[in-house]
Amino acid sequence: MHRGQIASNTVPDPVVRYLRGRDLKMLVGGKFVDASDGTTSAVVDPSTGEVVGAVPSATGADVERAVETAREAQGAWEALGVDGRGACFQRFAELLQSHREELAVIDAIVSGNPVRAMRVDIDLVLPYLRGWPQLARWLTGEVIPGSAGNLHYTSYRPYGVVGRITAFNHPVMFAATRPLPALIAGNTIVMKPAPPAAAAALVLAESFAEAFPPGVVNIVTGGAQVGDALVTHDGVKRIAFTGSVPTALTIQRRAAESGHVKHISLELGGKNAMVVFPDFEIDEAVEGAIFGMNFNVCQGQSCGSNSRVLVHRAIYDGFVSRAAQRLREYTVGVAYEDATDMGPLVSANQRDRVAGYLETGMREGATLVTGGEHPEGAPVGGYFLTPAVFADVKPTMRIAQEEIFGPVLSVLPWGDYEEMLALANGVNLGLTASVWTHDLDLAHQVAERLDAGYVWVNDSAKHYFGTPFGGTKDSGIGREESREELLSYMETKVVNVRFRDPPGVFVRMISGR
Question: What number of CA atoms fall less than 13 Å from residue 220's CA on the CB side?
Answer without folding.
Answer: 33
